[in-house]
Amino acid sequence: MAERGGRGTSSGGASSLDKSITLPPDEIFRNLENAKSFAIDIGGSLTKLAYYSTVQHKVARVRSFDYSGKDIEHESPYEITVQEEITARLHFIKFENTYIETCLDFIKDHLVNTETKVIKATGGGAYKFKDLIEKKLGLKVNKEDVMTCLIKGCNFVLKNIPHEVFAYQKDSETEFRFQTNHPNIFPYLLVNIGSGVSIVKVETEDKFEWIGGSSIGGGTFWGLGALLTKTKKFDELLQLASKGKHTNVDMLVKDVYGGAYQTLGLSGNLIASSFGKSATADKEFSKDDMAKSLLHMISNDIGQLACLYAKLHNLHKIYFGGFFIRGHPVTMRTITYSINFFSKGEVQALFLRHEGYLGAIGAFLKGAEQDNPNQYSWGENYAGSSGLMSTSPDLSPMQRARSSTFDMFEMDRLERPLVNLPLLKDPSTYIPDTVDLTDDTMARKYWLTCFEEALDGVVKRAIASQPDSIDAAERAEKFRQKYWNKLQTLRQQPFAYGTLTVRSLLDTREHCLNEFNFPDPYSKVKQKENGIALKCFPSVIESLDSLGWEERQFALVKGLLAGNVFDWGAKALNTNESLNYENRKLNPECTGFLLQEGPPHKCALIFADNSGIDIILGVFPFVRELLSRGTEVILACNSGPALNDVTYSESLIVTERIAAMDPIIQSALKEERLLLVQTGSSSPCLDLSRLDKGLALLVRERKTDLVIIEGMGRAIHTNYYAALKCESLKLAVIKNSWLADRLGGKIFSVIFKYEVPSE
């Protein structure tokens, strides 16, 4: 986060905040001039502000030419225009209470178009700062119940952020083990550790109950810690605990019995009595050791209590949050150990990336109920989010305080609701990505370097896509700097945005391009290649139709694979690695799929990849063959642009042009045996757990029994191991030498993976 305010060695006074607050408003309070509604969560030391704004950005639109009376041989297939579009965004900002007045002044000075007269507020500080907020902003403060807001916020992030939940593993190579989101998030136990402890059972979106708690919580640790160590600040107390050794203060089982207590199965290293040695030893104990002992005592008490309630209510998911947690390694580690011990490994302690924002999110949702934000799907905007900071105990309290002063989280409202593909065999265990770069150090270093080296090319492509723009070069340079900074952050903190994958690196790049109004850098390339491929379509079809049935099947698949080579996102095509494709042989499983006998599939779902030769000369001849067999086809394309992948709007025009040349495609469109749909994605990869709801409904309605996933991003970087309920075909050409070597092949090797689900 240094690029947004710097991280120095100051004492954390007002001057360090001033450096942040005096930055341009789009650096912190982004789009504040378009803010429509506000909510605020004020805790004991931190304030979390939430606001909804509209964001104006450029989008590339395609529109078919009117070809009546014209010679289409000399025309592009469509025209491209860049238009302004307004979308919705949620902003969340976290800063220290010490600076709330300064921040409120800043917000007031930059408010322009706000429509609201009310601000929803939650947290203990909502009462303390009510008059100040109303005076500064001229808005009426409506206070909301703390626990209701926390639960609403928790439900919201669990549903909308795929890598929200993690388990903490301090002693492993990867600190954070992110969890797969289950399609049904309920029921779960929420343990909120503030001054005390509240334990809430959440059964549905609107049904929850407080089932227990304890007066021994974060306030106890802070208060007793201050008495024992004379340390007044919570973070400094945790810093002491991170360096302490509790065994110098606590009495262990082996101190009482000389070793393990075998009769009860108790290890000799278990704590028999917290602070037990302080009663018998005639010496001074270090502040570090006392702080660590106190932390263990409170964490063990909370962990045992949470486990008992989880077992009582037959719950296996426990989410921990509150001021006591806040991403601190020592608290997460002790809570994790306690839960694992008392549950005998049956229950896992889980934490949330955006735990600090739950109250603010919930308060916002309470204020926006008339707009029903839950009817939409939302996605994290990586370009405007700080990410999860390192929890290393080596961070000084001032560094941690400084980071808390300046932290941001943004979510964009998606155009259409996203759901699971109904054909996933087990949505609860589905993992889209093939390689976890958070775990795989070698792979992580390779891919981060790969994206760094490709950055110059992306910048040039972005500038070239807008030749008439006088500020394109300036905006492209800002994109370069922002994405470069993101990559450097991920080198140090690969867990910043959840599990690090090739997909997340690509998505982050797309978010940064959109941030600086480069909506589709490959639009003109795609336009040209689509035009060229369309001219070749009739001769390709004529050639295929002249072949015998068996020979045609192999030619169709070879054409499909050959078309997939033309991918502007592939490293090989940007480094001129030699292409020796023609003599690649298809393995026996390809033959089994192509020449299988029996009735045709009822409906095939095809996820398309690249524009130009790939979709027009590769995919469409294949679609045409399936239609001829009597199989209906659903052709799914990206909703928005990513690299040179074909978009839904482009596919509509391309299909219209092909239908004018081919009666099979034309009649299939007319009879609705060929249906074009959008995926709901704007990524070169594919997450089958977040697809357009309309696509999912169509898959059910047409009783789809074959899924074809094409391309390196969709079939190799993602979904290589995806298990489906129906037959599936994953095919691609490997256009990256490192990946080919990792998979045991060579550059431009063919992946043709035909899978039949086991009964």
UniProtKB/TrEMBL annotation:
Cofactor requirements of the protein: Mn(2+); Ni(2+)
One Pfam family from the record: Fumble
Highest taxon in the source lineage: Eukaryota
GO MF terms, alphabetically ordered: ATP binding; hydrolase activity; metal ion binding; pantothenate kinase activity
GO cellular component: cytosol; nucleus
Damage-control phosphatase ARMT1-like metal-binding domain mapped to chain residues: 451-745
InterPro entries: ARMT-1-like_metal-bd_sf (IPR036075), ARMT1-like_metal-bd (IPR002791), At2g17340_3_helix_bundle (IPR035073), ATPase_NBD (IPR043129), PanK_long (IPR015844), Type_II_PanK (IPR004567)
Reactions accelerated catalytically: (R)-4'-phospho-S-sulfopantetheine + H2O = (R)-S-sulfopantetheine + phosphate; (R)-4'-phosphopantetheine + H2O = (R)-pantetheine + phosphate; (R)-4'-phosphopantetheine sulfonate + H2O = (R)-pantetheine sulfonate + phosphate
Record localization: Cytoplasm
GO terms (BP aspect): coenzyme A biosynthetic process
Keyword Endoplasmic reticulum: no
Keyword annotations from UniProtKB, A to Z: Acetylation, ATP-binding, Coenzyme A biosynthesis, Cytoplasm, Hydrolase, Manganese, Metal-binding, Nickel, Nitration, Nucleotide-binding, Phosphoprotein
Function: Phosphatase which shows a preference for 4'-phosphopantetheine and its oxidatively damaged forms (sulfonate or S-sulfonate), providing strong indirect evidence that the phosphatase activity pre-empts damage in the coenzyme A (CoA) pathway. Hydrolyzing excess 4'-phosphopantetheine could constitute a directed overflow mechanism to prevent its oxidation to the S-sulfonate, sulfonate, or other forms. Hydrolyzing 4'-phosphopantetheine sulfonate or S-sulfonate would forestall their conversion to inactive forms of CoA and acyl carrier protein.
Annotated NCBIfam families: panK_eukar
Known partners and oligomeric status: Homodimer. Interacts with PKM.
Family (UniProt): Belongs to the type II pantothenate kinase family.
Protein name: 4'-phosphopantetheine phosphatase
Organism: Pelusios castaneus (West African mud turtle)
